[in-house]
Every structure is written in structure tokens, then in C-alpha cells.
Amino acid sequence: MTAATETLNPIQGGHADEAHGHDDHGHHASTGWRRWVYATNHKDIGTLYLWFAFTMFIVGGLMALGIRAELFTPGLQFWQPEFFNQLTTLHGIIMVFGAIMPAFTGLANWMLPLMLGAPDMAFARMNNWSFWLLPPSALLLVISLFVPGGAAAGGWTLYPPLSLQFGMGMDLAIFSVHLLGLSSIMGSINIVVTVLNMRAPGMTLMRMPMFAWTSLVTAYLLIAVAPVLAGAVTMLLTDRHFGTHFFKAVGGGDPVLFQHIFWFFGHPEVYIMALPAFGIVSQIIPAFARKPLFGYHSMVYATASIAILSFMVWAHHMFSVGMPATAQLFFMFMTMLIAVPTGVKVFNWIATMWQGSMSFETPMLFAVGFVCLFTVGGFSGLVLSIAPVDTQMHDTYYVVAHFHYVLVAGALFSLFGAVYYWLPKWTGYMYSERMGKFHFWWSMIWFNVTFFPMHFLGLAGMPRRIPDYPLQFTDFNTLASVGAFCFGLGQLIFLYNVIHTIRGGVGKAPANPWEGSHTLEWEVPSPAPHHTWETPPAREVVEKGLKEQLL
Amino acid sequence: MNTAAMPAVERDRANRRTAIKLGIAAAAMVGFAYGMVPFYNVFCEALGLDRARPELADVHAAAMRVEFDTNVSAGLPARLTPLQPVVAGRAGGLVKARFRLENLSDAPLGLRAVPSYAPERAGRFLTKMECFCFNALTLAARETREVTVVLLVDEAMPAELGAVTLSYTLFPLEGKA
Ligand code: HEM
Ligand SMILES: [Cu+2]
Fold first, then answer.
1. Alpha carbon separation from B165 to A248, A249, A448, B57, B69 (Å, rounded)
2. Lowest mean pLDDT among A2-6, A468-472, B51-55
3. Would the CB atoms of B22 and A261 count as touching at under 8 Å?
4. How many CA atoms, within 13 angstroms, populate the side-chain half-sphere of residue A178?
5. In contact, A528 and A425? CB cutoff 8 Å
6. Which residue among B25, B47, B58 sits closest to A250, beta carbon to beta carbon?
7. Which of A165, A219, B15, B103 is buried most, with the most CB atoms less than 10 Å from its CB?
8. What is the distance of C-alpha B174 from the center of its chain?
9. Is the pLDDT of residue B62 over 80?
10. Is any atom of ligand 1 closer than 6 Å to the C-beta of A317?
């Protein structure tokens, strides 16, 4: 009997613990709300993260629909421009920091200990803190809508001088970013220590699942750049209230300096939202192609080089601020260079599918959809990386199209894929494949209807972050708005499917419902018991899975 | 260090050590963010890059940026460098700028600087009181000289003009190159 099968009843867990000497995180037999507020179990915390992220996805999504409703026709219909700007700003902040990032952290919490054969995350109490900082910070953002002057309205990038001029909504946003940053740093420390120190015997770094690799590298990135963002917003705060002049030209500061600091954080940040997606897709595609991942080692090196390069390209967001030509050239070529490791990944995914016995269950659909559409986003990124082109395209809808291809069809689709892939493990039931497939195709179609026309709008010169536009942009905007509402509606199917699965779905799930999955999480029963791998998995179990993955 | 096989107490200690290192790294990165501030100033200064300036920040004073650009016609062994690439001008005020003019050849050199404005209409609001471009110049072999231009900004300068580029191109004197 492996540790996996000794299903510990949480009610008796307290006693079993003393024997194991787990004094660092005494998981009591908490029930009801206490189970969640005092949660230290990685699965409970993962669940909290995922539900929080979904809630924020809905909140941010409603704001996006507010934006698209206003842009359905030219002229001002629903909102004053000031409120429109608050919507775009909060939509960005909430989706980035409230939806995508917590969702990945939630997945890492749920899955890393299972995949690595560890009993829990390294620091269970700190884990509780990392999560419980999130709801207050989200609350701060929501409250900021109702204070005098309204929420921050200068875009999610918080550029001065605008961000120095707003009312207290901006201060609330700054505090919120502080809390979010702190939460990310603690969450990341937990992930790094868990991955580095707590792998099952036999699972060396170069044999661990790709999702563990990308989570590890992402966590390193966050530890490096979340403090930089915290520093930048702290400077904003002291410029606003304490008489410093970091970004105030009147006192000898420079608003452009903020852009440098922000994007030093900001570009690694976009990879913080992309790398875990790469990891997920690298788990799903081999499973449904029934072939080991092609080029595991090159995947690891590509992940690492993307992470390193991402510190050297930040000024491609600033081509139009007036940098010297040599600096523009440097950032232009470095940015183009990132496309190389990214290309390596795309080719590896395609090579994994090549001559595989593929089947297209919902997780695979989302993974293949990811590969197709993320590549489109990568290409538009390459177009933008050309400095002379970007001076034309900067701050137009072309950029909006670019980052929604990499973030919605990229990060978000990978998250949907991950949820469908691991839902049987989490709930013990199978989801409805029919509903899942419908969700995929619906999202795929309406995503493209929403965002593809934005390329044309941008090329034609429509600026981003405007509540009104000239008549010639009407058709594509109307189309995008229709697409957005349909896309949004489709996500309710996802919610329904998940709840349906939790309540029994279409039947019980076996320990491993997928033919081609060979990672350790499938060795424990479904639903995964509250405590797993209390003793590390046996060497043979580890080796058997690794052999199937040719590692 | 893989701690999976260690006894609980040792494992916790090893994990904590790793965590503390990471926490220190995070704290150091806050320092890095603040370090970017002086570094930015030094960097801009060292490379002669333009940065925001207090004298241009006061919107009520209707300040105008005057930027200087220089070119040398093909084959002319000379160099012209603005000593302050950007200066602030005010309606009714004077703008003074200095340039370094160098003869890079071992022979005397006769040349002339030809000015131009962008946007062109800005020329109307800037009157040259004194300019090294008024006369032909002759430089001795390897000579380096400082030259100046003094501009009077018209009272009627429209505030929305914002920035003006004054560009000088050096040409050889006819028949004396
Ligand atoms: C081949 C890879 C990529 C290249 C060459 C690239 C290049 C660029 C460039 C040059 C810009 C600046 C456009 C402008 O503001 O004028 C940009 C913006 C952006 N990119 Fe990418 N990108 C790539 C991948 C990604 C990925 C993977 C993500 C996120 C998952 C991402 C997210 C963003 C976002 C959010 C912005 C807009 C930021 C803002 O101004 O609000 N990009 N990209
Ligand atoms: Cu970037």
C-alpha cells in the first residue's frame, strides 16, 4: 500500500499528525467556514485560490462588457469618459492580478505537491496568508469605485503624471498592489522551496513535470520583479503625499523613469502569466497525443532563457518615449530574440502531436487552441517589436489585439484546459464532455470574433482606452462588442459544468481517467484524499511514470 | 537541497533556510527599484540623454523646448556638437546655446552652417540675435572652437507650439574645400 491510498479522514487527521511530527501545520478537524479561513492544506488553499480567481474573472469580465457596451456604437451611451477610464484600468488590474495570477498560483498549490510526491507545500501557514491577502486587496479595488473621484483611471500601467493627479481611488489601488505583491512573493517562496526541496526520491530536477519547471521559473521571476513594482507604486505614493519628486518634473524628477521601473517589472510579468500556461500545455498535449513530450530538455532551457531574456526587453513598451536609436535597436533585437525560445516551445508541442494517437477531449481542445492562437499573439508581438512599426502602432487597438491573444487565448485557455484536465482528480467525478466541447468551440469562435477585428482597428489608427471613436471604426467595433457579450455568456456554461461535476457530473472518475497521463498525481485516488504522499511515493512508482515519459 | 527524506525537524530547518534566502532576494529587489532612480540620472547624464526638466514642467509659464540637431554634409572632415541638446525657451525671453565645432583634418577648413527649423512655422517666432551661421568660418588644422547662437523668443509664441527643433548642417565653402 502506498501512501497515496491511506486516505486520511480529515476528522482524525489531528491525531495522526502528532505521530508524524507535523507540528508546523497542525491541521485540525476544522469544519464549515473554519476549514477555509484557517486552511493550511494545499488542496484547500488551491481551491480557495481557484474560486477567488474565477470570481475576479467574472468581476473583471463584467467591466470588460461595460467597456464593450460603450464601444458598441460611436458616441457616449452609457458612461462618462471618466468612468470609462476607471473601467479599463480596473479591468486590467483585476484580470492580471486578480484572475490570471491567482489561478496559476492556485493550480500550483493544488498540483505541485501531488505531482512531485510531497505531502504539502513547504510552508502551510504562510500559504494561508498568501491567499487571505487577496480578498482584502480585491475589496480595496472595488471600494475605490465608490470614493470621491472614483477609482484609478490612468490605465493598469499607472503612468504618472496622471496617476499623481487622481483622488484617493489611486491610493487604494496602490495599497491593493502592495498586498497583491506581498501575496505573490510569499506564494512564490512557497513554490520555490517546495519544488527545490520536496520532490520524491528519484525525481531529479531534470525529470520533474514541465508544469513544475514553469512554476519554479515563474516563482523566481515573481520574487525578482514583484518587489520592483512595489517600489514603483511606493514612489508614486510618496510623490502624491509626502513631497518626494521621483516622477515630478517640477521637482527634478522624470515621469519616464516610472515607465522604466514599471516595465522592468511589467515585461517579466507578462511571462509570469505565460510560462505556467506553457507548463500546463506541456502536460496536456503529451497526455492526449499518447506520446512523451518532445524535447523535454530543450523545453527546460527555453523556459529558462525566456525568463532571463525577459529582463532585457522592457523598453519595447516605450519605443515612442524618445529613446536614442541605439537603445531602440538594442531592445528591438533582444525582443525579437525572445521569439526564438518561444518558437522552440511551439515546435516541440507540434512535434509531440506529430504521429501521436491523438484524441480531442476538452483539455486537449483547449491546449491545441492555445498553441494556434498563442502563436498568432506571438506573431503580432513580433510585429510590435520592430521599433519603427511600433511607433506607429503603440497605444492602438493592435496592441490590445496582441495582448488579448497571448493572455485570453493563451493564459486563460490554458487555465480552462487545466481545470478540465484535473477536475476528475479534484472532484472524483467526470465532467460532461459535451458541455466542455461546447464551451471550447463557443469560446474559440467568439474570442476570435471579438479580438481579431481589433488588429484592423489598430492598423487603421484607433487608439486604445477611448470611450468614443470616429464613425469609420463602427463596423469592427460593433462586431467586437457582439463577440465579447457572446464570449462572456459562454463562460456561464463553464461555471455550470464545474458545479455539475462537483455534484456528481456524468459519473465517478477513476484514479487516472486519461490514457496518456503518467505523472504522480494520477497515482492517488480520485478525488484526491485530503492528505496525500504523507510518506514519499515508492521509488518504483516514481520510476514507472518517468519511464513512460522517457525521462 | 532535497529535504524529502529528512526527519521533520531538519527538513523544516532546511526549508526555512531556503525561504530566508529568497526573502532576502525579494527585499534586495525593492532596493534595486530605488537604485534605478540615481542610476537613471547618471545614465542620462553620461550619455547626454534628454530627461524631463523642471524648467519645462511649469505649464503656466508657456515654456517651449528648443532642441538642437546637427548634421555634417558628406565628406566634410568636421564635427558639430551641441553642448546642451535641449534648452527651455520662454515667450519674450532669450535662448542661448553653445556648440563645439571641430576640424578633424590636418589642413585649414572653410565651412558654413546652414540652419533650418521644424516645424517650419516656428522660425517666425525665433529671431537669431547672434549666430555662428551668420558668417563663413575658417578653422585652422585640428582646431576646436566653441560657437554660440542667441535666439529671441517672440512674445506671440503660441503656447501649443511645445517643441521646436533647430537644425544646423555644415557645408564646405564653395571652391575652398
Ligand atoms: C514573441 C513574444 C512577444 C513579443 C515579441 C511581444 C512584444 C510586445 C511589444 C513590442 C509590446 C508593446 C506594444 C506597444 O505598447 O506599443 C507588447 C505589449 C504587450 N504584450 Fe507582448 N510580446 C510577446 C509576448 C507576450 C506574451 C507571452 C504576453 C503575455 C502573456 C504579452 C503581453 C503583452 C501585454 C499585456 C502588452 C501590453 C501592455 C500594455 O501596454 O498595457 N506579450 N508586446
Ligand atoms: Cu513586453
1. 24, 21, 44, 18, 7
2. A2-6
3. no
4. 13
5. yes
6. B58
7. A219
8. 32
9. no
10. yes
Among A393, A470, A405, which residue's Cα sits nearest to residue A444?
A405
Cβ pair A265, A317 in contact under 8 A: no
Indicate the domain borders of chain B. Answer: 1-49, 54-172
Determine if ligand 1 sits within 6 Å of the CB of residue A380. no
How do B78-82 and B109-118 pair as beta strands?
unpaired
Under the banding of pLDDT at 50, 70 and 90, the label for residue B64 is confident
Q: Is the pLDDT of residue B156 over 80?
A: yes
Fold of A43-548: Cytochrome C Oxidase; Chain A (1.20.210)
Q: How many CB atoms lie within 10 A of CB B92?
A: 12
Domain boundaries along the sequence of chain A: 43-548
pLDDT digits (tens, 9 = 90+) for A502-529: 999 999 999 999 999 999 999 999 999 9
What lies within 8 Å, CB to CB, of A74 at 6+ separation is A468, A469, A470, A471, A473, A474, A477
Indicate the residue of B1, B12, B25 with minimum beta-carbon distance to A223: B25
3-state secondary structure A260-277: HHHHHHHHHHHHHCCHHH
Residue A11: predicted pLDDT = 37
Q: How far is CA B149 from CA B69, B83, B154, in A?
A: 13, 12, 16
Q: Thinking of the domain B54-172, which architecture would CATH place it in?
A: Sandwich (2.60)
Beta-carbon neighbour count of residue A539 at 10 Å?
Answer: 12
Region A476-491: mean pLDDT is 97
Residue A282 confidence (pLDDT) above 90:
yes
Residues of A in contact with B23 (CB under 8 A): 185, 189
Count of other CB atoms within 10 angstroms of residue A191: 28
Q: In angstroms, what is the span from residue A299 Cα to ligand 2's centroid?
A: 21
Helix (H, G, I), strand (E, B) or coil at A241: helix
Between B84 and B169, the higher pLDDT residue: B169
How high is the pLDDT of residue A358?
Answer: 95
Residue A181 Cβ inside 6 Å of ligand 1? The answer reads no
Q: Which residues are B164's β-sheet partners?
A: B66
Interface touch A193/B18, C-beta < 8 Å:
yes
- Which comes out higher in pLDDT, residue B121 or A144? A144
**Is pLDDT of B115 > 50?**
yes
What is the tens place of the pLDDT at every residue in A178-209? 999 999 999 999 999 999 999 998 999 999 99
**Alpha-carbon span A56 to A61, nearest angstrom:** 8
Average pLDDT, chain A: 92
Q: Is the peptide bond before A453 cis (omega within 30 degrees of 0)?
A: no
- Find the length of chain B: 177
Shortest-distance Cα residue to atom 2 of ligand 1: A378
Please check whether residue A426 is in contact with residue A528, taking contact to mean a CB–CB distance below 8 angstroms: yes
